[in-house]
Structure formats: structure tokens, C-alpha cells
Write a structure and sequence with these properties.
Layout (H helix, E strand, L loop, with lengths): L1 H5 L1 E6 L8 E6 H95 L5 H54 L9 E4 L2 E4 L6 E4 L2 E4 L5 E3 L4 E9 L3 E9 L2 E11 L6 E2 L4 E5 L9 E8 L2 E3 L6
Antiparallel strand pairs: 1-2, 3-6, 4-5, 6-13, 7-12, 8-9, 8-11, 9-10, 10-12, 10-13, 13-14
């Protein structure tokens, strides 16, 4: 009797009113299946809620990064415009200085000839009108002497100003080169499937440092360089699979790993936005994606602020 009872489960529904009591009897194995299904349903709901919350967090973080990148881009554009204005003003200053020097030297030559003529006339017998004119010429000569002194001061100052102008030009050109070398923008289109920092490795399931970001998309999605530079490595390298490393100068390097195909060669100069390969899953990879790294002086940096 007990064995038979254990094979079934009875559920009673007892209302708080005087209505009849309801009972449901079903096999015990069915109750186990129902309980197991409920547990699976709760786990699925928990995973779904966790995924939605994580997705919202990633969306908020991406929006914040886009805002910061937009502000940084606006600031860089402002600096670039100011640099161009400085270079234009320097060119105008050099042109104005050259014209002013030619004009002053020409006027000095004319005044010198006039004073010499006046001095020759003073040696002869002159009338009162000529004496007055001679006195006036002496005043012109004093003005000429002041102009000569000012010109001499300008000649002394010009080398110093020239050095300052050259330094400004050099700084402006270096700033432009640095902006070209700094990684900027997305290397490809896709979804960030893994960020920068410590994570559980998808292959070994051990916690380890992830020194870049993973951008997932379909196979053969084009991969582009994020800054001007020179390809320092293009080939297969262990867990990276097909890897391209670009040296941008000023300590900047970018890594593009797991490529399905490489479209550049070592020593080749590349520009920002130039295609360097196609997305794939070569090396230590669980699916088609790009592993993208930004390194500064050899140290890995979070690529998110550079996107």
C-alpha cells in the first residue's frame, strides 16, 4: 500500500468558503518533471533578466564613450584649426616683415641721396632760400638716422623672431603628426563581445588579463587601420592567429588578431581607414571576431577611449 502511495502525488485545493474541495492526482515521476521544468524556467528567466541588465549597461557605457569621443574630437578639431591659423599668421608676418624691410631700405637709399645732394649745395654760395632748405634737410637727416637705428634694431631682433617662428612651425607640424599617429575610430563594424580587463578565458575557463577588446561580426568583414603608420608585423603568431601590428610612432602601436586574410605586408605604410585584412577566427578563437589592441610604449591600454 505504501509503495503504491509513493508512486502518486495528490494535490488538494481547499477554498475558504463552503464550496467543495478539489483534488488532483498524478504520477510521482510527472511531479519531478514539472519541478525540474519550473527550475529550468526560473534559471532561464534569471539569465534573460541578467542579459537585459548587462545589455543596458553596455549601451549606457557605449553612449558615454561616444560622448567622450565626440568631445575629444571637437577639441582636437579646435586645436587643429588654431594650429592652421597660427601657421597662416606666421606666413603673413614673414611676408609683412619682408615687404617692410624692402620699403625701409628703399626709402633710406632715397633719403641718403637727397642728403648728399643738399650737403654739396651747402658748400657753394647760397641765398637765404637755400639756407632754409639746408636747415630742413638737416631735420630730414635726423629722421633718417632714427630710421637707420630702428632698422638696425629690427635686424638684431629678426634672428630671434625667426627662431621663434621656426619653433612654432616645428611644434605645429609635430602636433599634426602626433594626431595622425594617434589611433582613432573603430577598426571594423560589429558588437563588442569582450572588453578590456580581467575575464574568464573562453577556452581555458581560467581568469586572465584580456589586453584588448573583441569585436564580433560575420566572417570576412573588412578590417581597417585606425591611424597612419608602418606595418611592423604581418603573419601568423600563436594564439593571435593571423596578426597585423602597425607602428604609428610616438609610442603608439595597434594589434589586429584572428584575421581570416591579411592584405598588407611588413614595412608597408598605411593610412587611417585603409583596409588591412578580413575578419576571421584563426588562432585561439571561439568564433569570428577581431581582437583589437592599443599599446602605448609597449603597455596595453583600454582601446575604448580611442574608438
Amino acid at each position: 500500500m505504501n509503495k503504491k502511495f509513493m508512486q502518486f502525488v495528490t494535490v488538494f485545493i481547499i477554498p475558504h468558503t463552503e464550496e467543495a474541495t478539489y483534488s488532483f492526482r498524478f504520477p510521482f515521476w510527472l511531479s519531478r518533471i514539472v519541478c525540474f521544468g519550473l527550475i529550468l524556467l526560473l534559471m532561464f528567466l534569471f539569465y534573460l533578466i541578467y542579459g537585459v541588465v548587462s545589455l543596458q549597461g553596455e549601451v549606457s557605457e557605449n553612449n558615454l564613450l561616444r560622448k567622450e569621443k565626440r568631445l575629444l574630437s571637437e577639441r582636437e578639431n579646435t586645436i587643429a584649426e588654431e594650429t592652421e591659423n597660427i601657421l597662416e599668421q606666421i606666413e603673413q608676418l614673414e611676408e609683412f616683415t619682408s615687404i617692410a624691410m624692402e620699403k625701409v631700405e628703399g626709402e633710406m637709399d632715397q633719403e641718403t641721396e637727397f642728403v648728399q645732394m643738399q650737403r654739396e649745395e651747402e658748400s657753394d654760395e647760397i641765398d637765404l632760400y637755400q639756407q632754409d632748405r639746408a636747415l630742413a634737410s638737416r631735420g630730414d637727416y635726423q629722421v633718417l638716422e632714427r630710421a637707420q637705428r630702428n632698422l638696425q634694431d629690427i635686424k638684431v631682433m629678426l634672428p630671434e623672431k625667426g627662431e621663434t617662428i621656426e619653433e612654432l612651425k616645428k611644434d605645429a607640424e609635430e602636433h599634426q603628426d602626433r594626431m595622425k599617429a594617434k589611433p582613432d575610430g573603430w577598426p571594423t563594424w560589429g558588437r563588442i563581445s569582450s572588453g578590456f580587463g580581467k575575464r574568464r578565458d573562453p577556452v581555458s575557463h581560467n581568469w586572465r588579463m584580456h589586453e584588448g577588446i573583441d569585436i564580433s561580426n560575420s566572417a570576412n568583414t573588412p578590417i581597417s587601420a585606425t591611424a597612419y603608420g608602418t606595418v611592423s608585423y604581418a603573419g601568423y603568431r600563436g594564439g593571435f592567429g593571423n596578426l597585423v601590428i602597425i607602428d604609428h610612432g610616438y609610442g603608439y602601436e595597434t594589434y589586429y588578431a584572428h584575421l581570416n586574410r591579411i592584405d598588407v605586408s611588413e614595412g608597408e605604410s598605411v593610412s587611417r581607414g585603409q583596409r588591412i585584412g578580413l575578419m576571421g577566427s584563426t588562432g585561439r578563437s571561439m568564433g569570428d571576431h577581431l581582437h583589437y589592441e592599443v599599446r602605448v610604449n609597449g603597455n596595453p591600454r583600454d582601446p575604448a577611449p580611442y574608438l
